[in-house]
Amino acid sequence: MKISVKRGTKxxxxxxxxxxxxxxxxxxxDLGLPLNxxxxxxxxxxxxxxxxxxxxxxxxxxxxxxxxxHYGLGxxxxxxxxxxxxxxxxxxxHIAKQHYLPDAFEFENQNYFxxxxxxxVGVFTVTPYLCDHSAYGAYAFLIEADGQKVFYSGDFRAHxxxxxxxxxxxRHKPENTDVLLLEGSCLxxxxxxxxxxxxxxxxxxxxxxxxxxxxxxxxxxxQNIDRMVxxxxxxxxxxxxxxxxxxxxxxLWAMDNKNLPNFTWKDVKKITAKPRRSHEIDLTTIxxxxxxxxxxxxxxxxxxxxxxxxxxxxxxxxxSMWNGYKEKYQDWLGYLxxxxxxxxxxxxxxxxxxPTLKKMVNALKPKMVVPIHTFYPERFCxxxxxxVCLNDGDVFDVSVK
Length: 401
Ligand SMILES: [Zn+2]
Ligand SMILES: [Zn+2]
Fold this sequence. Notes:
Blueprint: E1 2-7, E2 16-20, E3 26-29, E4 58-62, H1 68-71, E5 83-85, H2 87-98, E6 110-112, E7 119-121, E8 124-130, E9 139-145, E10 148-152, H3 163-171, E11 179-183, H4 198-210, E12 216-219, H5 225-237, E13 241-244, H6 246-254, E14 268-271, E15 280-281, H7 283-288, E16 293-296, H8 299-307, E17 316-319, H9 330-338, E18 342-345, H10 354-364, E19 368-372, H11 379-383, E20 396-397
Parallel strand pairs: 3-4, 4-5, 5-6, 10-11, 11-19, 12-16, 12-17, 13-14, 13-16, 14-15, 17-18
Antiparallel strand pairs: 1-2, 1-20, 2-3, 7-8, 8-9, 9-10
Bound molecules: zinc ion (2 copies).
């Protein structure tokens, strides 16, 4: 087997890996939009034979999870290419399209896989492993052909609400892995060696809301289900009602897990201009007793809050997503600052910290560790004796030790 990282050896996002069997058959793992891309345009597609017009040697495309930096350029592929993804990934993409999110699309030839159920793609055998990550239904892949094994970590962590998955994996990991393609998002970003868990964030939310006398606002990604659970739990423990957009509620509902907050629960409401059903609420009602509510804002609620002049120094606001997105929201953040809102950042990474990366490598004991999804691949050489840094497009023979 050979591997060629088409994009991602020296950047976070835009991940695309080509795996080539000795017979010439190929599969692609992820086809992401680069993080620094201003627009999703076809010209960004990496140079991979057979993706715009399917060729017979291209067996399929695996998608690890529903983050644009892993599937975003998939909108340009030949529709007949078989795409393998989790039901949750497909559902998140479907709902994003239904709610007209920018760059939303769905794959045509979709094939769902199940956790740890091996399946064949041409000559390749693929085993997906469900991971703890900020995207729901995120998977790592073991890819086997020619008697060799490549393990693609995807994006993962071990400090989220599904951390058990990681420790279970360490106990039941595959043996004799040749190459581990390992994400290194945390390298160069590490403020501390250890990342906070979602439970620690829950406490921070509760502490912050303890003294607040007005409306509580939170800004987060509706697709970050772990964080939605954290916010819900903190709201409930603070005796507040969680108010979500229809889109956020729809995503939670579609994950088909009755333990996730949803609009059938009495302390979860959907914000709407004209409430008709018991689970719906409008801003006028919220503002009659603002202290009672936590509103997860989206663009529309932010506009309405400003139009209603609903924000004052009693309002509290939590920014609960990656710092790098702040630039996008600078007008809104500036508005809040002017209104003297109490503001706080409460967030933890969706990615593995260094101790977790080490645990992964120690358990799998791969012959080689290839960094991907990192701005600092050379840091892998300090961490692991068997790190091999590649360049985008290099073709690397898995059998060479
Ligand atoms: Zn990613
Ligand atoms: Zn991700």
